[in-house]
Amino acid sequence: MRTVFIPEYLEGVPLCIYLDTDLIILSDLTALQNLDLHDKSTACVIDGVISTPDQQQRFRNMLKLANFRWYFGSRIIIIDLDALRLREIQFKALGIAKEQHALPDQMDHDALTIALADD
Q: What pTM, to 2 d.p., does this model score?
């Protein structure tokens, strides 16, 4: 549940850029740091592996997402930590993980995706 606890790990920090550990960064990240989130708590990349209608339906059913495009990739996430804390997204994600303990492989990511669906 590493991504869910980022606001607690970085208490007092207003913004962070989460990067998967296997990424190689070859350029300056300042543009990401300065990205306008348009009152959202995160900016994420849509997960590109959900491409077939069968996969899309599976994610709608499994995660109860109205739109499969809300499922984001967790490799890079720009997080407005203040907004996340204010909206208590981490607590929503923890509640979802507890209620839906049968979530697939990436429980923290899936729970966070569901919690952020309306954000």
A: 0.77
